[in-house]
Design goal:
The complex is a heterodimer of chains A (466) and B (183).
Chain A (H helix, E strand, L loop, with lengths): L1 H13 L31 E4 L6 E7 L4 H5 L6 H11 L5 E17 L6 E16 L2 H9 L8 E3 L5 E16 L4 E18 L3 E8 L7 E14 L13 H11 L2 E15 L2 E15 L3 E12 L15 H8 L2 E4 L3 E4 L3 E12 L16 E12 L6 E13 L2 E10 L2 E13 L2 E8 L12 E12 L5
Antiparallel strand pairs in A: 1-3, 1-21, 2-3, 2-21, 3-4, 4-6, 5-8, 6-7, 7-9, 7-10, 8-9, 9-12, 10-11, 11-14, 11-15, 12-13, 15-16, 16-17, 17-18, 18-19, 19-20, 20-21
Chain B lengths: L1 H19 L18 E12 L10 E8 L6 H6 E12 L5 E8 L5 E9 L8 E3 L3 E3 L1 H8 L3 E8 L12 E12 L3
Antiparallel strand pairs in B: 1-9, 2-8, 3-6, 3-7, 3-9, 4-5, 4-8
Classes of the chains: A mainly beta (466), B alpha+beta (183).
Chain lengths: 466, 183
């Protein structure tokens, strides 16, 4: 039970599976690999995913602390642990969650038996969350300003983005020649809820010098903005309903709409040397449903009460002054959010020819199949601050005709020893896959900074199985 | 039936995960110990009364004013304030001595507490007085939390007359240090 609790905690509290799907990428025996490269060299007569179970993935990660740092049963005072985490974190540290669930998916070959054109389609639900560690604000909350006279607490540390959306997509890929596969995918996004607060600035300052009217020089300069869509009705007093149900309903049926594309390529430089690249989620969402933007903009210089002894003044109210200096503004303008765009690329060298189990090659063309592949992958993703970049080395092997294995070693902002393992096997027409990231961390999940897994079931039909 | 099948499969997968992994012994009850204890400093009140505002033929004189002070209207602040300290600093460059009374008043203008500070007359040398810190804890803190207004009474003792050409001023600077405990 404790572990279940922990998994949920890791998922919700620390959470950061980056969105890098380095194990899935170019793992072409899994049809879902065309979701990370629409130009992947995937072939089938047709396939369909088992609804809701064809693609389940979750990534969580926190670059600065783990559950162990916070909850270890080691006699250290909890408040000291919190303080240590704050001290050891920087405002570049982030907590990320990405979760995807395929609702349905399928694909089929178009044209005759000789055709190498494929259409795939599907819908999935996605949850995205990223928050940078608001270090200065955390220090202010834990320590106050007394020990930090002269320090400027930076409000730009407040930086977060969250979105629940559903994605409907149709993709097409075609093997133009033995050397070249091109593919693209069009997507319609439907966003059920979005919260974006990524362009904040301002500071809180307390100074002390001899020649000021009062003891301290206290300034709050605020330029804060929180944009939300699909959320404002939940904050109203009169709201009576189920937030998860309403968000789910909006996500699929009444969301803010957006458009996006994926594109990808596979190119065989030589028969055993393969290059691939893809760009995923190049798109936007026009946030237009139930939108509300909150602004706190202004400068407030707090001096304290100031009696003037002239007998004519109205009693002043410092809080009214604050509200006047930094008013809360609510706007109802539509806004556009850009999807986190992902970029993948890989190069793979294959060796070790396999003996095919197939008795005859029905297609008539001779394609050699290699047992081993090694290579490297690059992943980059747009983020509110600086892009996220990861480098992967991988090895893949066909263990049997219908059992493929891939191992990855990834260096990313969360870890420099992220080992991933993936298995994809076919039993009859049922394709099953399980991909796990950061396997070393499973030795003690409580100390993990990031965890990711992905699994799914598909029915895949090939010509030879007719 | 179908959702049953799905939930069974996902349970099995989840269990495979959980049993193939390990976890250190964690103690989530520690969250109950979580306590924030920030200490904030803030300005309290200030004034700068020039001698020319106190034109006087040598008799004692009283001036006063009342300021709104609504920090304690905020329930969160009231509930989590454990201790407060007030520091007063007066600089007097007027050739008269003063007594400064700081009066804490509640919403109905009832006096909760009066603190008096003696300020000597200016005699040509530096005349900045930092008064001992007023510490508010327990019952005294409870009274402070009822404060809605601050009264300032400046009593000028008798002495040399002041006219439109008199130099100097009486300056107050003050700050509060608040010790919060948020659980």
């Amino acid at each position: 039970m404790r572990k279940v609790y922990l998994i949920f905690l890791v998922a919700f509290q620390l959470s950061c599976f980056s969105q890098n799907k380095q194990v899935l990428y170019n793992f072409t025996s899994i049809p879902q690999s065309s979701l990370v490269n629409p130009g992947a060299d995937v072939s089938y007569k047709f396939y369909f995913g088992i609804p809701v179970l064809s693609g389940v993935s979750a990534n969580l990660g926190s670059s600065s602390f783990s559950a162990y740092d916070l909850f270890a049963n080691n006699g250290v005072d909890f408040n000291d642990k919190v303080r240590n985490i704050i001290n050891n974190s920087s405002n570049k540290d982030k907590t990320q969650v990405n979760q995807q669930l395929e609702i349905f998916s399928g694909g089929f070959r178009v044209g005759g038996r000789e055709s190498q054109s494929y259409i795939s389609f599907g819908a999935y639900q996605e949850f995205d969350f990223i928050m940078y560690f608001p270090k200065d604000i955390a220090i202010l909350a834990v320590d106050g300003n007394q020990k930090y006279i002269g320090k400027t607490f930076d409000l730009s540390d407040l930086n977060l983005r969250a979105e629940v959306l559903s994605v409907f997509h149709v993709g097409y890929h075609r093997k133009l020649s033995e050397k070249l596969v091109l593919g693209g995918r069009a997507k319609i996004y439907s966003s059920g809820a979005n919260a974006t607060s990524t362009h904040n600035s301002g500071f809180i300052f307390t100074g002390e010098s001899a020649n000021t009217p009062n003891l301290y020089n206290q300034v709050i300069s605020s330029n804060l903005e929180l944009k939300t869509s699909g959320l404002s009705k939940f904050t109203k007093d009169e709201y009576e309903g189920s937030i998860p149900n309403d968000i789910a309903h909006n996500t699929f049926f009444n969301g803010s709409l957006g458009l996006g594309i994926d594109a990808g390529i596979t190119y065989y430089i030589k028969e055993n040397l393969q290059f691939t690249a893809s760009i995923i989620d190049l798109g936007f969402i026009r946030q237009s449903k139930d939108i509300e933007t909150l602004n706190y903009k202004g400068i407030y210089n707090y001096k304290g009460a100031n009696p003037n002894f002239l007998g004519s003044n109205k009693p002043e109210d410092v809080f009214d002054e604050f509200d006047k200096a930094i008013p809360r503004d609510t706007l109802y303008n539509k806004y556009t959010t850009w999807r986190p765009t992902k970029l993948y690329s890989s190069i793979q060298y294959s060796f070790g020819e396999s003996r095919s189990d197939e008795e005859c090659n029905c297609k008539g063309s001779v394609t050699r199949k290699y047992v081993n592949g090694i290579g490297g992958q690059l992943f980059a993703m747009t983020m509110p601050n600086e892009p996220y970049v990861a480098l992967t080395a991988f090895y893949r092997r066909s263990i049997f005709e219908k059992l493929d294995f891939k191992a990855t070693y990834t260096i990313d902002p969360y870890s420099n020893k992220n080992i991933g393992l993936g298995l994809s096997g076919t039993l009859g027409k049922l394709n099953m896959y399980l991909l796990v990231d950061n396997v070393l961390e499973y030795r003690d999940v409580s100390k993990a900074n990031s965890l990711a897994f992905q699994f799914g079931f598909n029915f895949v039909f090939h010509d030879s199985e007719d | 039936m179908k959702s049953n099948f799905i939930s069974r499969i996902s349970k099995i997968l989840l269990l495979v995960f959980l049993f193939s992994s390990c976890s250190s012994n964690l103690d989530f009850d520690q969250v109950k110990d979580f306590k924030l204890t920030p200490v904030f400093v803030a300005n309290l009140a200030y004034f700068n009364v020039p001698a020319t505002q106190l034109i006087n033929d040598g008799d004692a004189q009283i001036i006063y004013d009342v300021s709104e002070f609504n920090a304690f209207k905020d329930k969160f602040f009231r509930d989590n304030l454990m201790k407060a300290e007030l520091d007063f600093e007066v600089e007097n460059t007027i050739i008269r001595s003063f007594t400064l009374d700081i009066v804490l008043l509640d919403v109905e203008d009832q006096v909760l507490e009066t603190d008096s500070y003696k300020v000597p007359a200016y005699s040509g040398t530096s005349n900045v007085i930092k008064f001992p810190t007023e510490v508010f804890e327990n019952q005294r803190l409870d009274l402070l939390k009822k404060t809605a207004k601050l009264g300032f009474i400046v009593r000028m003792d008798g002495g040399p007359p002041l006219d439109a050409n008199s130099k100097g001023s009486l300056k107050l600077r003050s700050g509060a240090t608040v010790y919060m405990e948020i659980e």
